[in-house]
Amino acid sequence: MMEECNLVHFDQQVAGHDKLMLMSTNDLIVVKPCKKRELDFYQDALNFPDFQDFIPECYGTVRAATEKDLKLLDKSELDDGTVKLDNNQTSDHILFQSKIITFRQKFKPHFNIPNLICSQNLCLENVLHGFTKPCILDLKMGSLLYDQDATEEKRKRMINHSVTTTSSTLGLRFSGLKVYNSVQRRYATFEKKYGQSRTAENIIDALLGFLFPVSIYASNAEKDAKYITDKTDQDDVKKEKIPTKYSKWVIECFIDTIKEIRESIIEHPNLQLIGSSLLFIYEGDRAAADSTWKQMLEEDDIPENKELKADDDDLSPKMCDIRLIDFAHSDWHADRKDQDPELVKGFDNIIALLEDCLKRQRQEKL
């Protein structure tokens, strides 16, 4: 008998207005309310396979199987954060128009979901899956924050947001972040106001505070943070900072991937990213980081002629990840020969900032 499947509130969101949801039976998929433009973006992205690694995988569009459930999904405020789904349907497939993903082939036996009727709620890969205590940064990219459909009032508001923040000066802005201190065993969350108050001069300190939660840079930001203590904490849990070599490896991975994304968007000038973000994720739990690091070293020793099992590769724990997200105002149909220089500037600046973080790490032994 199929286990009952609900939609529950996704509590790891650090920015944005959307009410993101998770399947109650697992954390493999995020359900995100969307407009047609974002759905079209993911569908058009299928024509650019070289870009697929840089965005969450899209498995289609879903909604609850009853009109009552649909109304709950569409409500701006959910009463208890839970939406029940109809389990009378037993198909193993979710349709994305011409694209059909057979989940059981990829995730069996980790994934179990009833068939859901198509609607405009995106069914996306949960890029936080595989992390124990994910540290998350939503970095808004570019200086243009509105599309051609924006009202005059919204255009003025978005222009003001850009010129009064680092969106205009650097082509990027902290939109939200959540960082885990592995010594104090607590999360610190920072809302939009924190990012909006950063300047070209002090944004490097904010980035260092995110990358090194047990540092003077994180301590200096305490007045701007809200804290959530780890309720599952135990006396025998390892309360130690993330080792320097782990952090260095993570930052280098971030830099390498951002360079690849930068190159890709330049090669696709027709790609117009407006209000999109780079989502940074790294493991903040010391024990989980140790385990993942050990696994990575073991995999490095695996002979080239011996392949990993697909399930192990897909579901293994992660040390870090970075993706482009949020495409409600983006599309693949810009009529131009060169990419937006302000967007490219943002990528250049975050690369430079991360390289500066590596230098500070060496100099200050972070």
TrEMBL record:
GO annotation terms (biological process): inositol phosphate biosynthetic process; phosphatidylinositol phosphate biosynthetic process
Assigned keywords, A-Z: Kinase, Transferase
EC top class, as a word: transferase
Gene Ontology CC terms: cytoplasm; nucleus
SUPFAM superfamilies: SAICAR synthase-like (SSF56104)
GO MF, any single term: inositol-1,4,5-trisphosphate 3-kinase activity
Superkingdom of the source species: Eukaryota
InterPro entries xref list: IPK, IPK_sf
Enzyme Commission number(s): 2.7.-.-
A Pfam family the protein falls into: IPK
Family, per entry: Belongs to the inositol phosphokinase (IPK) family.
PANTHER family named in the record: INOSITOL POLYPHOSPHATE KINASE, INOSITOL POLYPHOSPHATE MULTIKINASE
Protein name in the entry: Kinase
Species of the source: Mucor saturninus
